[in-house]
């Protein structure tokens, strides 16, 4: 797993800024067109590399926004240009990435990673719910600066058809900022699908419908969690009285606005007992759902504090999970199972399984090393610990993997 930040020797950074890392070859071939939107040479930081291919003296004359060295030669240490040098972890920042630098810190954040499956526009640390298993507990801060950073970031990312996430916290708390970001994404990278994670509560305000219709973005999916088929259980999980009614109203408003909807369920002791009833509820009340995501819990943040309330061995809910997944699948809804180790899965669920844990936060434990499924399996979150580990974790043989990938479901 690759970190998203590392320390550099940072010199001559006047103000917080995003920079696109570019090699000399790419600079010659594409210039600022390497970026999807409006960018100029000042938005680029030149990858100075190592070895004889790079003639540092000539490169240092180029009018770019900065220079990134693996090792800084003494003659450039006081040159007056923005310099990043000697990264603590040289793997973290690579050509094509967009990085955030600031005069206040020597930590450089990667805010866009070229080719990654998990690029995200992070909107805010704030949230209007307090879910028991929240992996990133909300903070009461005014962090609207994320809006401008994301607008700039959209200009600097690579063009191309990968998916971009929009997440928080709760992104709809900054309504105007979120709408501006979607509009800018539609103008800059219309080829990229947007996946917005929201609890949907504020979308219960019907005035969103006209705003969303006006956006006219070609490819947005809203991922909205619904943790029960009834208000009491859902509100307990999200720790917010009234949330179920608001989320349901939000879902209907999204439908009225012509938006594509993914319903998300996090599997925990509080949610698995009524999974079959929940699946019925989703089908009967939200038949316009485009995708249903059934997800294992991430054992970090508030989930650690609420371990006793949340933990159930996935081996103990496979029957309910299979019942819900097949019920929805047979009725034409697209179903995915995320964030579970493949070896705990009931075999007929194999075809719903996705290798889902973001590349920068997954890991494989010692048991996995001899497993045939390592390429196909999501493994574990980097926060994994043994008390969150199923008793059924075991290396799969090639035959078992084949069965998982091809097991048919027979309708009784
Ligand atoms: S043992 Fe295999 S299937 Fe189980 S978690 Fe490890 S890699 Fe995945």
Write a short abstract of this structure.
This protein is α/β, with parallel strands linked by helices and 412 residues long. The chain contains 12 helices and 17 strands. The strands form 3 sheets. It has an 8-stranded mixed sheet. It has a 7-stranded parallel sheet with strand order 9-10-11-12-13-14-15. Strands 16-17 form a two-stranded antiparallel sheet.
Describe the structure.
The protein is α/β, with parallel strands linked by helices. The protein has two domains: 108 residues, Glucose Oxidase, domain 1 (3-Layer(bba) Sandwich); 220 residues, Aldolase class I (TIM Barrel, Alpha-Beta Barrel). The strands form three sheets. An eight-stranded mixed β-sheet has the order 1-8-7-3-4-5-6-2. A seven-stranded parallel β-sheet has the order 9-10-11-12-13-14-15. Helix 1 links the parallel strand 3 and strand 4. The longest helix is centred in the middle third of the chain and has 14 residues. It is globular. It starts with a strand and ends in a 6-residue tail after the last helix. Iron/sulfur cluster binds next to loops.
């Amino acid at each position: 797993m690759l970190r998203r930040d590392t320390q550099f020797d940072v010199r001559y950074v006047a103000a917080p800024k995003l920079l696109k890392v570019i090699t000399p070859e790419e600079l010659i071939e594409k210039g600022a067109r390497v970026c999807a939107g409006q960018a100029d040479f000042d938005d680029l930081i030149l990858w100075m590399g190592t070895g004889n291919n790079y003639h540092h003296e000539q490169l240092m004359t180029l009018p770019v926004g900065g220079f990134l060295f693996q090792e800084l030669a003494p003659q450039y240490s006081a040159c007056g240009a923005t310099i990043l040098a000697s990264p603590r972890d040289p793997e973290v920042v690579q050509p094509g990435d967009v990085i955030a630098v600031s005069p206040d810190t020597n930590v450089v954040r990667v805010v866009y990673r070229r080719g990654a499956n998990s690029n995200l526009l992070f909107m805010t640390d704030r949230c209007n719910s307090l879910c028991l298993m929240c992996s990133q507990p909300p903070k009461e801060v005014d962090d609207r600066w994320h809006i401008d950073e994301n607008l700039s970031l959209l200009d600097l990312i690579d063009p191309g058809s990968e998916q971009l996430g929009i997440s928080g916290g709760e992104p709809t708390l900054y309504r105007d900022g979120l709408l501006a970001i979607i509009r800018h994404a539609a103008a800059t990278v219309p080829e990229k699908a947007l996946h917005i994670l929201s609890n949907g509560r504020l979308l219960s305000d019907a005035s969103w419908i006209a705003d969303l219709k006006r956006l006219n973005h070609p490819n947005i999916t809203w991922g909205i969690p619904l943790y029960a088929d009834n208000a009491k259980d859902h509100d307990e999980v999200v720790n917010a009285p009234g949330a179920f009614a608001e989320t349901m109203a939000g879902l209907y408003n999204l439908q009225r606005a012509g938006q594509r909807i993914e319903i998300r369920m996090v599997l925990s002791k509080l949610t698995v007992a009524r999974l079959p009833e929940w699946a019925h509820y989703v089908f009967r009340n939200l038949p316009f759902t485009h995708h249903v995501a059934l997800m294992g819990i991430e054992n970090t943040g508030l989930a650690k504090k609420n371990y006793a309330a949340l933990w159930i061995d996935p081996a103990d809910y496979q029957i309910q999970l299979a019942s819900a997944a097949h019920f929805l699948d047979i009725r034409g809804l697209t179903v995915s199972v995320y964030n579970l180790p493949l070896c705990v899965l009931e075999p007929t669920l194999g075809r719903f399984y996705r290798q889902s844990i973001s590349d920068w936060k997954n890991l494989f434990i010692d048991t996995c090393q001899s497993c045939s499924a390592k390429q196909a399996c999501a493994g574990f979150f980097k926060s994994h610990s043994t008390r969150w580990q199923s008793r059924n974790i075991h290396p799969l043989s090639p035959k078992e993997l084949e069965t998982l990938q091809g097991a048919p479901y027979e309708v009784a």
